[in-house]
Design a protein that fits this description.
The chain crosses the membrane at residues 48-74, 192-217. The chain contains seven helices and no strands. The protein has 239 residues and is mostly helical. The longest helix is centred in the last third of the chain and has 44 residues, at 192-235.
Length: 239
């Protein structure tokens, strides 16, 4: 995906540069004496850049493979890390609008509320359920936790007020009481084949890129060796 963005930016920059060159006649007169320089520079640069490219692809592929293996082997620790990330996001819910939108999207998409349960929202300073909290949102949960009917067009953003003060059974009539961690883990387990297919789809182009880069490196090295051999034999007076 990053490569596609970079290619798009490169194509746009190339077209923009071509348009600028078309408007400037002075740039259409390159010095003829420098005609041989690009090939020399290419000869020196390409054998150096392609190995770096191949090494970078290999390192990225190995890191992805290691992350996948560690994720399955240390699933309990991965669950703990996910819990830590979600709880940290709950704490900073009101601090960042992008984070707030992301959490609301996740809670609506997975029909969940909080980390382990909806009462985890007491970790946020605005939703904290202590009596000393002066916030209007005391003991509330975000509107994304609320149950919405199929025909409900207008969302009531005040629907989560006071829900933390209610028990699970009473609150379940108005909001999702299950936490997002279990929902996320269950979704991952039920979509292992999908995730595996996506991982394989991302890995195959990298493997192809590594193989093609290595083949091209070998071809360039053979061409350089052939050129050096021809140059040596041309300089040999006995040849």
């Amino acid at each position: 995906m990053i490569s596609m963005v970079m290619v798009a930016v490169g194509v746009y920059a190339r077209l923009l540069k071509h348009a600028e060159l078309s408007n400037s006649s002075a740039l259409f007169y390159p010095a003829p004496k420098r005609k041989g320089i690009p090939s020399k520079h290419s000869t020196l640069t390409i054998p150096f850049l392609f190995p770096q490219f191949s090494v970078c692809l290999t390192v990225v592929f190995l890191l992805q493979l290691a992350a996948s293996v560690l994720g399955f082997v240390f699933s309990d620790k991965a669950r703990g890390k996910v819990s830590e990330i979600i709880n940290g996001a709950i704490v900073h819910y009101r601090d960042d609008l992008d984070l707030q939108n992301l959490i609301d999207f996740g809670q609506k998409e997975f029909s969940c509320c909080g980390g382990v349960s909806y009462k985890d929202w007491s970790q946020n300073v605005y939703f904290n359920c202590t009596a000393a909290n002066p916030s209007r949102e005391r003991c509330a949960v975000p509107f994304s936790c609320c149950l919405h009917g199929p025909g409900q067009a207008v969302i009531n953003t005040m629907c989560g007020h006071g829900m933390q003060a209610r028990g699970y059974l009473e609150a379940s009539a108005f909001i999702h009481t299950n936490g997002c961690i279990d929902k996320l883990v269950n979704w991952t387990h039920s979509n292992l084949f999908l995730l595996g297919g996506i991982t394989l789809g991302l890995a195959l182009p990298q493997l192809v890129g590594i193989v093609l880069a290595q083949l091209l490196i070998n071809q360039i090295r053979d061409q350089i060796k052939l050129q050096l051999y021809n140059q040596q034999h041309r300089a040999d007076p006995w040849h």
